[in-house]
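User: Can you model how farnesyl diphosphate sits in this protein?
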Amino acid sequence: MPFTIPKHIAIIMDGNGRWAQRRGYPRVFGHVRGSSRVKGIVKEASQLGVKALTLYAFSTENWSRPEAERKVLFRLLKKYVIREGEELYAENVRLRVIGELERLDSDVREVLNNLIQKLSGNTGLQLTLAISYGSRTELTRAAALFAKDCQEGKVRPEDMNEALMEKYLWTAELMDLAPVDLFIRTSGEYRMSNFLLWQAAYAEFLFLEKHWPDFTEGDLRLAIEVYNKRDRRYGGVKP
Ligand code: FPP
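Assistant: Here's the modeled complex, given as structure tokens:
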């Protein structure tokens, strides 16, 4: 069997808080260490030839965290976007953001939009940051948009099918890269937590005990090795 690089990898970068608490640090220090792991993982994915990498940076449910923690998360996100812009450009990475962007502060939106623009001509790894993202919101929003298009006579209810549904999702621009091949979650939790529920319908799942700040480039390569041992049948049978 040839070695396959998964086209689309999605990661829930979980366990920052526990990583810090276990070492006697405040939770936010875990986010600091966690955010500093992103750079290396993006580069490794790009160099391995992964086509799309989607990172769960902030969920719709994360709005319920204390304001101080939310502030740190958005500050780290901004810092990443500002600091890594040049390197992402040199690495030929494109950037997209999925989620309720309208809920973000305008300064965060602005740095994100600037970098998206700067990287828009690149042709390599498609990096997607899921920010204020939740699949249930994505799907309800898709239903509402479709209903509106029906009302305006742009489409008819009977036009709805899986391909059309995908056009109403936040991941529409990923096109054939939208289906997740490998779904990784760190920190020993076995849940999807409202992340890419539609797109991960046939993903291979890998749950790791490590917390995100300890996740290395080597772990990413190992995850891809495990992926290569999986037997993907998409509900069919082997010939
Ligand atoms: C989960 O850990 C992690 C998050 C909610 C945020 C992930 C964000 C980053 C890694 C930093 C910013 C992102 C980028 C792209 C630079 P947790 O707080 O839920 O940990 P716990 O489960 O141990 O409490």
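A couple of observations from the model: The first strand starts at residue 8 and ends at 12. The chain has one domain: 8-134+182-229.
User: Helpful, thanks.
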